[in-house]
From TrEMBL, chain A:
It is a multi-pass membrane protein. This is Sn-glycerol 3-phosphate transport system permease protein. Keywords: Cell membrane, Membrane, Transmembrane, Transmembrane helix, Transport. The keyword Transmembrane helix applies.
From TrEMBL, chain B:
Keywords: ATP-binding, Cell membrane, Membrane, Nucleotide-binding, Sugar transport, Translocase, Transport. Signal peptide: none annotated. GO terms for molecular function: ATP binding. Residues 4-235 form the ABC transporter domain. The keyword Membrane applies. InterPro entries: AAA+_ATPase, ABC_transporter-like_ATP-bd, ABC_transporter-like_CS, ABC_transpr_MalK-like, ABC_transpr_MalK/UgpC-like, Mo/tungstate-bd_C_term_dom, NA-bd_OB-fold, OB_MalK-like. It holds the Pfam family ABC_tran. It comes from Blautia caecimuris. This is Multiple sugar transport system ATP-binding protein.
Length: 305, 382
């Protein structure tokens, strides 16, 4: 007999052992039912809320499969009655959508890589190196975040115009190769990094560049991931600048291409929505792939640990 | 071989604020030097100056006869152990140990040999494949020490390496550090605010305060012969008791210290050698009498030692009692301050009881209240 069974219960004599077991069982079942009920309620509320938020997107997907005759009626058609692929096919026929998608990928990819390199290097010097005017310089960088992009767009256009690189890939990429937001994000991440690690590396004989490549970058993968997702989606969604500096189908990005589907001559909402649905796919998939990193990176430094 | 010499070294943070000022010290080969002092006294800064992590504003740093002020940290040949271990989280224990050698382009085979050798010394052979996150505090500490040892540096710099460990592990690591020092025979410079660590580890202690060196010497010598009030109060736990007194010249050339304020006007007679050593015995001069808790005795202790009738005793009310097992520490209030007595565990006096206390007058220290200097300080002992 084990020791636990040998021990007298505090209420022994008033209640038998089997009765006690029964009480335990009913209480267990009740607690379990309560917990299940609560989970179900929470799940329903979440599904409902998600549905409300996703409604416009789902409706857009639905429209993309409708023939235009179905959309322009007085009835409310939520789901297509005669689903068709024709909108997608026509979208590809009317404009060189694949070329545009390709252009967007090149632009967004180059901007992302460029920003990660420049921002991580800048953030490294702002958080690990000591130099005169560091505080003021960082403040200046931060101040540029307060200047709206539209305010500089004309002077930027004049500059690239003089450089003679209009309607090329470099003109889409060059002005966005660094960002104050990225520098800030990386710096915040590096601030949580123990300085003694850097000092220890220095005593080990490790140079700055080697420290960045071998120690800092492997340890800040999540910040880099967050930054990459954020930058890529922003670049993918750029509209104003590509519209201004590109003139030919050869260099247009997908956002401008989509608006080309909608013209005075051939106004077709269904066609355009089909295009939009197609170009959302890359940005959504990037987000899904990188969301863990994005959330972790964005909130890093918010709490210690 | 490593001789480190600091000559008038200063580190200025801004025009008015010095981290370290006018620091002069010779560190000889194989010494275990401890920088000790309250937080903000400049001990860590001095260590970082030697490592090259801070710039020396003024003065010279010589290592093995070479001026090192402007040498890069890696060129100074020092290895440092940090308080938070500073292990690379993305590398295994093996990688951490090997990293410094890898940078120095040591052949792979030799790296392997040395890593295993160091792992054996520190008993971390079974941990070589683990990442730092899978190690306990004590194990991390060993790895940190290991990555310092492996480079065979001229000197080890340790910045409060044990302060993140629990009390038991700390005591254990202290013993191992001593063993390691003996085994390797390398100079060690060790920073701590823990005076137990300072007393037990060091062959030479440097007591610092507000950026200045107060006293340098062997632990026991500093403990028994502190140069001033600060050093006397800093080393020892519970710390030395201080009483305000006045000198009174008595008939037949005897000199007494008379307790001031609420001190009941008790007289403590100085022995002749002490009187001679103190020199100035102007009647009425104010002094501070310092005595360590272990140099105050209860009636039994005093009788055993035969100091019962040398001086008057003090009758005090115990305000607190700590029983640690090996000893009993009683606290009493006098001159608006709490003082401590370290007695044998057999003493059964409880809080609120009265007790008669006897001072061992051979062990007292006398300080000047203005300059805070120890009037009984013996130069030749250092």
């Amino acid at each position: 007999m084990s020791q636990a069974e040998n021990m007298a219960l505090p209420i022994e004599g008033q209640i038998s052992r089997s009765e006690l077991l029964e009480i335990k069982n009913t209480m267990n079942t009740r607690a379990l039912a309560k917990r299940r009920g609560r989970t179900a309620l929470r799940l329903t509320a979440n599904v409902l809320f998600a549905f409300v938020v996703l409604l416009p997107l789902l409706y857009a997907v639905s429209i993309a499969f409708m023939p235009s005759s179905e959309l322009f009626t007085t009835e409310l058609n939520i789901l297509p009655k005669h689903p068709t692929w024709s909108n997608f096919i026509n979208a590809f026929k009317n404009v060189p959508l694949l070329k545009f998608i390709m252009n967007s990928f090149i632009m967004a990819g180059c901007i992302t890589i460029g920003q990660i390199i420049s921002c991580s290097l800048a953030a490294f010097s702002f958080s690990f190196l000591e130099f005169k005017g560091k505080g003021i310089l960082f403040m200046l960088v931060m101040a540029t975040m307060m200047v709206p992009g539209e305010a500089t767009i004309i002077s930027n256009y004049l500059t690239v115009g003089k450089m003679g690189i209009l309607d090329t890939y470099p003109v889409l990429i060059l002005p966005y190769l660094t960002s104050a937001m990225g520098i800030f994000l990386f710096r915040q991440f590096y601030m949580t990094f123990p300085v003694s690690l850097y000092e220890s590396a220095k005593l080990d004989g490790c140079g700055n560049l080697r420290f960045i490549v071998k120690i800092l970058i492997p340890l800040t993968k999540s910040a880099i991931g967050a930054m990459a997702v954020y930058t890529f989606i922003n670049a993918w969604n750029m509209y104003m600048w590509p519209l201004l500096v590109t003139g030919s189908n050869e260099r247009r990005t997908v956002q401008i291409g989509i608006s080309m589907l909608d013209s005075v001559d051939s106004q077709s909402i269904t066609l355009m929505i089909a295009g939009v649905v197609m170009i959302i796919i890359p940005s959504i998939s990037i987000f899904i792939i990188g969301q863990k990193q994005l959330i972790r990176g964005m909130f890093s430094g918010a709490v210690k640990g | 071989m490593s001789e480190i010499a600091l000559r008038n070294v200063s580190r200025q943070f801004d025009p008015e604020h010095y981290g370290v000022k006018d620091f002069n010290l010779d560190i000889h080969d194989k010494e275990f030097v401890i920088f000790v002092g309250p937080s903000g006294c400049g001990k860590s800064t001095t260590l970082r100056l030697i490592a090259g992590l801070e710039e020396i504003t003024d003065g010279e740093l010589w290592i093995d006869g070479q001026l090192c002020n402007y040498l890069e940290p890696k060129e100074r040949g020092m290895a440092m152990v940090f308080q938070n271990y500073a292990l690379y989280p993305n590398m295994t224990v093996y990688g951490n140990l090997a990293y410094a050698l890898k940078i120095r382009k040591v052949p792979k085979k030799e790296i392997q040999e040395r890593v295993h050798q160091v792992a054996k010394i520190l008993e971390i052979e079974s941990l070589l494949d683990r990442r730092p996150s899978a190690l306990s505090g004590g194990q991390k500490q060993r790895v940190a020490i290991g990555s310092a040892i492996i480079r065979k540096p001229k000197a080890f710099l340790m910045d409060e390496p044990l302060s993140n460990l629990d009390a038991k592990l700390r005591a254990q690591m202290r013993v191992e550090l001593l063993k390691l020092h003996e085994q390797l025979g390398t100079t060690m410079i060790y920073v701590t605010h823990d005076q137990t660590e300072a007393m037990t580890l060091g062959t030479k202690i440097v007591v610092m305060k507000a950026g200045y060196i107060q006293q340098v010497g062997a632990p026991a010598k500093i403990y028994n012969n502190p140069i001033n009030l600060f050093v006397a109060g800093f080393l020892g736990s519970p710390s030395m008791n201080f009483f305000k007194c006045r000198i009174k010249a008595e008939a037949d050339n005897r000199v007494a210290l008379v307790m001031e304020e609420s001190g009941q006007g008790k007289k403590f007679y100085l022995s002749d050698p002490l009187t001679k050593r103190m020199g100035i015995t102007a009647n009425g001069r104010q002094v501070i009498l310092g005595i360590r808790p272990e140099d105050i005795y209860d009636e039994d202790g005093a009788r055993e030692l035969g100091i019962m009738d040398q001086t008057e005793n003090m009758e005090e009310i115990v305000v607190n009692r700590e029983m640690t097992g090996a000893e009993t520490i009683l606290y009493f209030d006098e001159q608006n301050k709490t003082h401590a007595v370290r007695l044998k565990p057999e003493n059964k006096t409880q809080t609120g009881d009265k007790i008669k206390l006897y001072f061992d007058m051979e062990k007292i220290h006398i300080f000047d209240p203005e300059t805070e200097k120890n009037l009984l300080y013996r130069e030749e002992v250092q």
